[in-house]
Amino acid sequence: MSSIKLRTIRFVVLSVVVLFVFLPAYLPKTQSANLTSVSDTLSTSKLSFYGLMGSGNSVGETLILINTTTAPSTSSSQLASPSASTAKIGSNIYTVSGVMPNGDQSKFSISAALQSGDQTAGNAIIATSSASHTIKFTTASAVPNGAFRVLIQATANTGSSNDGIPDGDGFDFNAAAPSVACPTDSGTYDFVAGTASAAAITISGTKYHAFECRYSGTGSVGGSFQSNPIIVTSLINPAPKIGHAVGTSDGYSVIVQNLDYAYSLIDQTSLQIGIIEQVRVSATVAPQLTFKIAGIPSGALGSVACGTTTDVTTTPTTVPFGQVSITSFMHAAQSLEVSTNAIGGYVVTAQQNYPLKIINTSTSIADATGNGSNITYASKGRWDSTTYKGFGYGLKYIGKVSGTGSAAFEHSDTDGNCTGGTFCAKQFADLSNSEPAQTIFSSSGVSDSENVDVCYKIVISNTQAAGDYENNITYTATSTF
Fold first, then answer.
1. Domain residue spans in the chain?
2. Of 328, 474, 454, 351, nearest to 394 (Cα)?
3. With contact defined as beta carbons under 8 Å apart, do 131 and 43 qualify?
């Protein structure tokens, strides 16, 4: 993001893209019945990095040039995460000390000098991002003495599915096999130890890693494994797909199956998960501006969670609502914090790229209009009845060490269109509808750790089409020096 100059005033901008993932309320039939409420929640949705050394690198240098045209990872922004603090170049491991100097995606820096042999153009640059998969579901049939099997998309390249090197078209099994934690035993399910197999199943030409939990017992209809899930750990997330666009997720297939004692398929449900850069920063911080986004856990109350109990745990760059409801609100929250030595203060704005929608379709979840049908991206309004569907947000100013900051409005406001209500909300400004980004909090002077919670809120209609809905929210912090 380029700097904007107005005489002697300079603006420094940080942008953080937040990925929203919404899992379907139901999925199309593929067999005699579907498992329901199926989800795969990743501990991190960050892409692994698989780049190549570019031309012009020298032994002893700490600024690295990467290949930006033919490698799977073509932007150093994909290293911009605390989980990617090291990278393997050639045969050595280096600590990553910075990415995208002056916004240049072809470069990143390391803390120690590049060693002899590693400077060669075409050498691999690898920074893996491993995740645990938490698979939840509810059974459709009582299948005695059977098995639950989770299939997670693998690379199509024979021999590359379990070498510990990120693949550009699937999850890598890793050289050491991932572990499978099966659900705990219940009255109708008695599980044995889980098993894992690399690229063991091929369906319609697509290869899948297989993770299996066999059991004895009668099984049950409507058996819930929501709080008693299958957990697969240490799968390596994919590197970017060919043609990947930074900031746009790559989709991968996951299939959850219920098999009988003879391994015949009884029920199954398919879903898609998105892998994306977790944090993409476009800024030159000079002088000082610090902008942070922090997750807030589910079950958080009161002053740290917008005055209500949160339903999901957020991270700095994801708000994984999971399966949303038609009868009750779901709440999530993130904490935004700004510190700056700018004498003119700062402004933090928010804007969505488009309403929550199924990717590559026009099917979307409406933005909330509230009890009085008067909520817009620019106007707040009362929204405390589930009769009025949609997606929106409120704000809560938490506090500061020092400064003069305030939120543009608060969820607890009871003035104007929010009179008589218990939750005051707005829509996110919609870039696809040419709506300008809106200020959510600001200060007129220097500030130290000024903090606002963003309170996400959603409820859907009973006619909402099933599918995975998502969008990107861009928060931008601008300081005036």
1. 5-20+278-480, 49-127, 130-275
2. 454
3. yes
Beta bridge partners of 274: 251
Distance CA 67, CA 76 (A): 10
What number of residues does the chain have?
481
Using CA of residue 337, residue 340, residue 345, residue 348, what is the dihedral sign? negative
Amino acid, res. 188: T
The residue type at 287: P
* Alpha carbon 16 to its chain's center: 12
Angstrom CA distances, 121 to 71, 132, 149, 214, stand at 12, 34, 42, 48
Of 379, 376, 411, 395, nearest to 450 by C-alpha is 395
| Measured distance CA(50)–CA(427) in Å, rounded | 38
Cβ neighbours, 10 Å, residue 279? 20
* Run of H or E including 231: strand 230-236
Q: How far is CA 331 from the centre of its chain?
A: 16
Q: What is the largest CA-CA distance in the chain?
A: 76
Continuous segment of H or E residues that includes residue 230? strand 230-236
Residues lower than pLDDT 70 in the chain: 1-33, 80-84, 277-287, 301-305, 400-403, 481
For residues 4 and 8, what is the distance between their CA atoms, to the nearest angstrom? 11
Q: What one-letter code names the amino acid at 57?
A: N
pLDDT tens digit sequence for 202-240:
999 999 999 999 999 999 999 999 999 999 998 999 988
CA distances from 255 to 182, 194, 213, 272, 457 (A): 16, 17, 14, 9, 29
433 phi and psi angles, rounded to 5 deg: -105, 15
Going by DSSP bridges, is the β-strand pair 438-443/447-459 parallel, antiparallel, or unpaired? unpaired
Euclidean distance between CA atoms 368 and 457, whole angstroms: 9
pLDDT for residue 351? 96
Instruction: List Cα–Cα distances, 419 to 281, 388, 456, in angstroms.
Output: 39, 17, 20
Residue 332 CA to residue 306 CA, distance in Å, equals 9
HSE-CB for 346 with a 13 A CA cutoff: 34
